[in-house]
Amino acid sequence: MTYKEYEEKCNGIRKKNQVYLDEFKEDLIKAGLKEKTIKRHYTNVNFYINTYLLREEPMEMIKGTYSLTLNMFFGYFFIRKCTWSTPSTIKSTAASIKKFYKSMLQRGYIDEMYYEEVIDTFDEDMDDWISDCEAYNDLDSADPFFEFL
Length: 149
Known about the structure:
The chain contains 5 helices and no strands. It has helices spanning 3-30, 35-50, 67-81, 87-106, 112-137. Helix 1 packs across helix 4, helix 2 crosses helix 4 (87-106) and helix 3 (67-81) runs parallel beside helix 5 (112-137).
């Protein structure tokens, strides 16, 4: 794929994602959440679907439900590349993504099995992500991502 093709594909996905984000925001407003909370959820999800999912190969929103994708994001990318990563921001971002995919399920954009994969992945891997983040942010701990050659 050429860079031009990549950009065109990303732009098409971003347009679809904007519809999803607008509807997600509507659902958050209807749920009675405060403006600050809505903004946090919106920003977290926007980063995930419009930055992370498009960074190497353009991936549609539904691919963000895959266990491997979530693990690569939370278990590696978010911890190592996002300077604001802490155990608290992992939990907060995961909550936003969970709410987003619940909204997508309720609106018929994804099937139940995709939402269940999101929930199962969070249930199974959250403790590892938090532990790795704590170790990575602790200057006195060994880097959990350091590999011996």
